[in-house]
Design brief:
Strand order of the largest sheet: 2-1-3-6-4-5
CATH class: Alpha Beta
Radius of gyration: 16 Å
Number of domains: 1
CATH superfamily: Zn peptidases
Number of strands: 6
Structural class: alpha/beta
Number of helices: 5
Strand content: 5-15%
Order of helices and strands: EHEHEEHEHEH
């Protein structure tokens, strides 16, 4: 499953958060159309409402409703990818921040895409980032951490994790890099469409690998 939320924070156009993720899901639908009915695993591409405040981390999140429905149906979800705030990159030193203590071990340039999961999703993080790196020449950072770490559960992947599904957030790290996060200045000119396209193409290959 690949998903993204299409709502924005109040008073922001949301070009990066999260039109970048929404556009990526739509593009993946186009790129993967040839697989319809031909894979061992069903591929679902979903857009969610109500990820942003005031619904964030409440029962009203669209992804919570969807994940609960899948759990009630006892469907086997082998992977969920949440495409979240994907379009901003910088080679400037100090452009990347982290919640403590991760700044001691990860790069300080915000030029990479991140694969992030909660602790129950370690196998999927490892598998998906290995697949991405094998196909795509683009800087990547990946890892898992518990809910207590700021940012780790800040997207729709957390809804699926709470129902026991493995889920990964693919992101440019949002507030830890993007100076226009949840601001009126989150406009389309801030999105690096060339790098976003490279990330989406890499994710296409990840989905193809996992769907075999």
């Amino acid at each position: 499953m690949v998903g993204a939320h299409y709502d924005t924070a109040p008073d922001t156009p949301g070009a990066n958060d999260n039109a970048s993720g929404t556009a990526s899901v739509l593009e993946l639908a186009r790129l993967l159309a040839d697989l319809r009915g031909k894979t061992n695993k069903r591929i679902r591409l979903v857009l969610f409402v109500n990820e942003e405040p005031p619904y964030f981390w409440t029962e009203h999140m669209g992804s919570v409703h969807y994940a609960r429905m899948l759990a009630q149906r006892k469907e086997r979800v082998t992977a969920m990818f949440s495409l979240e705030t994907l379009g901003y990159y910088s080679d400037e030193p100090g452009s990347q921040q982290y919640p403590a203590p991760f700044g001691l071990m990860f790069p300080n340039r915000g030029n990479f895409v991140s694969f992030v999961g909660l602790t129950n999703s370690r196998p999927l993080v490892q598998q998906s980032i290995a697949s991405f790196r094998s196909h795509t020449s683009f800087p990547t950072v990946g890892g898992v951490a518990p809910w207590i770490i700021p940012g780790i559960g800040w997207s729709d992947h957390s809804s699926f994790s709470q129902f026991g599904f493995q889920a990964v957030m693919i992101t440019d790290t949002a507030t830890f890099r993007y100076p226009h996060y949840h601001e009126p200045t989150d406009t389309p000119d801030k999105v690096d469409t060339e790098k976003l396209a490279r990330v989406v193409k890499g994710m296409e290959r990840v989905v193809r690998d996992l769907a075999r």
